[in-house]
From TrEMBL:
The organism's taxonomic lineage, starting at the top: Eukaryota, Viridiplantae, Chlorophyta, core chlorophytes, Chlorophyceae
Gene Ontology biological-process entries: amino acid metabolic process
Keyword Transferase included in the entry's annotation: yes
Residues of the Aminotransferase class I/classII large domain: 64-428
Catalyzed reaction equations: L-aspartate + 2-oxoglutarate = oxaloacetate + L-glutamate
Full protein name: Aspartate aminotransferase
Pfam families registered for this protein in UniProt: Aminotran_1_2 (PF00155)
Cofactor: pyridoxal 5'-phosphate
Length: 437
């Protein structure tokens, strides 16, 4: 309906009259919830590719169900474990502290023990005061602090992330607003390291890029460079002036030896790199829910280290103010006391060894089940996960037909495999892969 301009009395009503068709539509077709509620326009977020598997597992009521999704250690009875070293540390900590706030950067003793564990007790960079370090909220929190630091103080740099990697790495750098690219890491046909691709991508990346490296027990592939390959990678990165950031979520968990698992970092340090390290005590001390970790950055000198540390605290303060106390006290008690530390070394080796033996057993059971496929990669890989090579459809069939849950990239959390369930797992894997892998 058009309104005549010669009718001044009606002119004020013009907007209402012109809106009539829309109003009529609104009355005839009731508005969707999206238009009528405050958050009606908020879409459901997609499920997390790892923690979403636990939700599916919990919803399955079949008693034979198996959760091989999230990387969380279980004993041979499928039960979560609290290490004896942690129990003893808890006993010593109980009642011994006030529940005061920690400083923004966390517990000083915890940090100094953590960086020694990563870099070695006698690392020159520690003696020279070149290391900026703060306590963090486990591995995710460390990576996120670094990503925010990168955004502010390494402007225009990209982060290069291995293909494949832990799915949360993408979320972390995306949310920090840092541009990311992938580098070649894994070769599906050899089920091994794509060393040539990796080196080529190091050369091609813009000088001064950040390279995210898994210090050991690469998640999800379980494929690590050898010490000689790390040396080559280190030299190639030095030439291009790249900044290596080591995500070390599994120190001790790969080989059972904390020094051996930190070899990559120490090779890079020896070559004179400035680098970052994200440490987590979730897996190696079983402190998953305590959210305890450490982020450290090796700088050129003491002045820079102090400035970098102050900026890391400035990032942490508005994000979570200061980190939690309890887990940091437990770690400190263990690392400061030689007897407890030795007990912990023994226990972390025990966990690593159990996983290594489950790899052999799974491979053996697959062969006994009559699988004609090559399963050597299960025993060649290292760390918490077996990157099986199964397709997303095979993984879906394992869940639907056998109540066995794992991430859709075919990653099996070997920490959830035990002498009681390995046979059923092998039979089920054989059934869904028959002749197709
Ligand atoms: C995993 O990869 O399963 C673990 O690191 C747990 C997690 O937070 O994703």
């Amino acid at each position: 309906m058009a309104l005549s301009t010669s009718a001044p009395a009606l002119a004020g009503l013009r907007p209402v009259l012109n809106a009539l068709p829309a109003l009529t539509r609104a009355l005839v077709q009731p508005a969707s919830a999206a238009a009528t509620t405050l958050f009606g326009n908020v879409e459901q977020a997609p499920k997390d590719p790892i923690l979403g598997i636990t939700e599916k597992f919990l919803a399955d009521t079949n008693p034979i169900k198996m959760n091989l999704g999230v990387g969380a250690y279980r004993d041979d009875n499928g039960q979560p474990v609290v290490l004896d070293a942690v129990r003893e540390a808890e006993r010593r900590v109980a009642g011994s502290h006030f529940m005061e706030y920690l400083p923004i950067g966390g517990l000083r003793d915890f940090i100094s023990e953590s960086v020694k564990l990563a870099y070695s007790d006698d690392a020159a960079v520690l003696r020279e005061g070149q290391v900026a370090a703060v306590q963090s909220l486990s591995g995710t929190g460390s990576c996120r602090l670094f990503a925010d630091f990168q955004k502010r103080f390494m402007p225009g740099t990209k982060v290069f992330i291995p293909e494949p990697t832990w799915s949360n790495h993408f979320n972390i750098w995306r949310d920090a607003g840092v541009e990311f690219a992938k580098y070649r890491y894994y070769k599906p046909d050899t089920r091994g390291l794509d060393m040539d691709g990796f080196l080529e991508d190091i050369k091609r990346a813009p000088a001064g890029s950040v390279f995210l490296l898994h210090a050991c027990a690469h998640n999800p592939t379980g494929v690590d460079p050898t010490p000689e390959q790390w040396r080559q990678l280190s030299r190639a990165m030095l030439e291009r002036g790249h900044f290596p950031l080591f995500d070390m979520a599994y120190q001790g968990f790969a080989s059972g030896d904390c020094d051996r698992d930190a070899a990559s970092i120490r090779i890079f340090l020896g070559d004179g790199h400035r680098l970052g390290v994200s440490q987590s005590y979730a897996k190696n001390m079983g402190l998953y829910g305590q959210r305890v970790g450490c982020l450290s950055v090796v700088c050129d000198n003491k002045r820079d280290a102090s400035a970098v540390e102050s900026q890391l605290k400035a990032i942490a303060r508005p994000m979570y103010s200061n980190p939690p106390l309890h887990g940091a006290l437990l770690v400190t008690k263990i690392l400061q006391d030689n007897d407890l530390k030795q007990l912990w070394f023994k226990e972390v080796k025990g966990m690593a060894d159990r996983i290594i033996s489950m790899r052999s057993l799974l491979r053996k059971r697959l062969e006994e089940a009559g699988s004609p496929l090559p399963w050597g990669h299960i025993t060649d890989q290292i760390g918490m996960f077996a990157y099986s090579g199964m397709s997303p459809e095979m993984v879906d069939a394992l869940a639907a037909q056998h109540h066995i849950y794992m991430t859709r990239n075919g990653r099996i959390s070997m920490a959830g495999v035990n002498t009681k369930n390995v046979g059923r797992l092998a039979e089920a894997m054989h059934a869904v892969t028959s002749g197709k892998l």
